[in-house]
Specification:
42% of the residues lie in helices and 9% in strands. The protein is mainly α.
């Protein structure tokens, strides 16, 4: 999916609607409610920073019942956004890093959007995130 290009990002409302629908489906089937959420796949959550942050901030406050400690944001790394996330929601979501490859050159070949942040810089941002 990293080579497919981007059509558009989900709005905060669309993100929250997906969570609501999943909760509703679980309730209808008699399953336990959704307790863990991961933002990932078919797009980079940190490229949709404002909408993802708006959705993450609303979830614990409303009927979704998903604590921030059970929310994970998966990223290939967007310059400055990992650090910004740590400062915006200090006790916030978990961070999952999708490296895709052990070297920068192979990483760029597999995921062209990874060109914007070299592994060494990315590791510094992740370290900063963990210290906030």
């Amino acid at each position: 999916t990293g080579k497919m290009g981007e059509l558009r990002n989900l709005t905060a409302h669309e993100i929250l609607s997906q969570v609501w629908l999943a909760q509703r489906q679980c309730r209808c089937l008699g399953w336990p409610r959704v307790r863990n959420l991961v933002f990932m796949g078919m797009g980079e959550p940190l490229d949709n920073y404002e909408n993802v942050m708006a959705a993450v901030k609303v979830m614990p406050e409303h009927a979704f019942g998903v604590a921030l400690k059970n929310v994970t944001i998966s990223t290939v790394g967007v310059p400055g956004r990992i650090r910004a996330l740590g400062h915006e929601i200090p006790a916030g979501p978990n961070l999952a890093l999708s490296l895709h490859a052990p070297t920068q050159d192979l990483r760029i070949e597999l995921v062209p959007t990874a060109r914007g942040l070299v592994l060494e810089d990315l590791m510094r941002e992740v370290d900063d995130y963990g210290e906030v």
